[in-house]
């Protein structure tokens, strides 16, 4: 069976909204044990995601067109993230084990167990408090997506506003990247401004990942990466997880197919080499209500494999995309 490493899903934050009735073992979401077993999942990254605006108390504050999240909201969001981390631990079972190191991943694989890696999507929850990064590491977080869709203590998000998009990391953000390197945490540049991306490439001493981002040359949205960015990520020894969200695959969203995922994979290989692309599905982070016949979960990953073969991607390259490139980065960092 083919092995799969998926660098990003939003399943845990969605399960938190549904209470205790649904679990990773069995739920009505995309990611569950049956689907992961069908896909041959080796490692599933579970993002602890807290949308800052949902934790605001009072009227939102705007700076021009951009929402500003206050410190109290970030503190409440941090508590929600801690609850999600506890939830992941409670979800452990014989066939799914949370790990904190590369060696543990290999041991789980030998024991035919699926590995869960806990991550944080939205570095704003650190809220300028250095001790929070240390606590997150102690609790098992091994990847942090530095921003989501708001300015935070680390930097600025991707944006159609060039004044925001060109902004780099803040001094505290640069400090946190260096500390993440020292601890052994993956720096994730998905959702980050272009300026912040280039700061991470410049400052990080370890490989950097874009856990769920596609090629801007094929779908011109700020969340995707330019060819220059793809090459820089590859030269850094990093990886880019192919995002299955139709909005980031093609402009005609209603016409999206798994072949679009394959097109982005082939483009990444052509632009930056076969050691760059990985998988970062973003499952449970989007709903495809207007798309018929599209992939609905990891149990259908065989369709993506076949689409990539039709695109001319070789079996060796497929193995790298499915697990090899991500595993190499994990060995280098955690």
SSE layout and pairing:
Blueprint: E1 4-6, H1 11-18, H2 33-39, E2 41-49, E3 61-63, E4 66-68, H3 71-90, E5 96-98, H4 102-110, E6 114-121, H5 130-138, E7 141-145, H6 162-165, H7 171-183, E8 186-188, H8 194-203, E9 209-210, H9 227-235, E10 239-242, H10 258-272, E11 277-279, H11 301-310, H12 315-333
Parallel strand pairs: 1-2, 2-6, 5-6, 6-7, 7-8, 9-10, 10-11
Antiparallel strand pairs: 3-4
Helix pairs in contact: 5-7, 10-11
Low-confidence stretches: none
Proportion of residues in extended strands: 5-15%
Number of beta-strand segments: 11
Helix vs. strand class: alpha/beta
Major sheet details: 6 strands, parallel
Q: Please provide the ordered H/E string of secondary-structure elements.
A: EHHEEEHEHEHEHHEHEHEHEHH
Describe what you observe in this structure.
The protein has 334 residues and is an alpha/beta fold. 40% of the residues lie in helices and 14% in strands. The strands form 3 sheets. Strands 1, 2, 5, 6, 7 and 8 form a 6-stranded parallel β-sheet that branches. The mean pLDDT is 95.
In brief, what are we looking at here?
By secondary structure, the chain is of the alpha/beta class. The protein has twelve helices and eleven strands. The strands form three sheets. Strands 1, 2, 5, 6, 7 and 8 form a six-stranded parallel β-sheet that branches.
């Amino acid at each position: 069976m083919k092995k799969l490493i998926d660098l990003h899903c939003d399943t845990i934050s969605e399960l938190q909204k549904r209470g205790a009735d649904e679990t990773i073992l069995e739920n009505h979401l995309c990611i569950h044990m049956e689907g992961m077993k069908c896909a041959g999942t080796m490692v599933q990254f579970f993002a602890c995601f807290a949308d800052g605006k949902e934790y605001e108390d009072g009227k939102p504050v705007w700076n021009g067109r951009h929402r500003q999240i206050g410190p109290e909201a970030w503190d409440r969001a941090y508590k929600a993230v801690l609850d999600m981390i506890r939830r992941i631990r409670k979800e452990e079972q014989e066939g799914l084990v949370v790990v904190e190191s590369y060696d543990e991943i290999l041991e789980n694989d030998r024991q035919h167990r699926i590995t869960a890696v806990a991550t944080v999507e939205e570095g704003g929850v650190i809220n300028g408090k250095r001790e929070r990064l240390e606590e997150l590491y102690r609790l098992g977080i091994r990847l942090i997506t530095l921003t989501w869709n708001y300015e935070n203590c680390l930097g600025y998000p991707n944006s159609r506003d060039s004044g925001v998009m060109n902004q780099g990391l803040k001094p505290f953000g640069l400090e946190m990247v260096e500390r993440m390197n020292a601890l052994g945490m993956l720096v994730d540049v998905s959702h980050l401004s272009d300026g912040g991306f280039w700061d991470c490439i410049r400052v990080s001493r370890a490989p950097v990942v874009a856990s769920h981002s596609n090629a801007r040359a094929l779908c011109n949205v700020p969340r995707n990466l330019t060819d220059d960015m793809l090459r820089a990520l590859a030269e850094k020894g990093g990886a880019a997880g192919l995002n299955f969200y139709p909005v980031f695959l093609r402009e005609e969203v209603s016409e999206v197919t798994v072949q679009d995922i394959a097109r982005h994979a082939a483009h990444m290989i052509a632009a930056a080499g076969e050691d760059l692309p990985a998988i970062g599905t973003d499952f449970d982070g989007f709903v495809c209500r207007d798309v018929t016949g599209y992939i609905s979960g990891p149990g259908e990953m065989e369709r993506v494999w076949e689409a990539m073969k039709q695109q001319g991607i070789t079996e060796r390259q497929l193995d790298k995309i499915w697990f090899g490139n991500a595993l190499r980065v994990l060995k280098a960092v955690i």
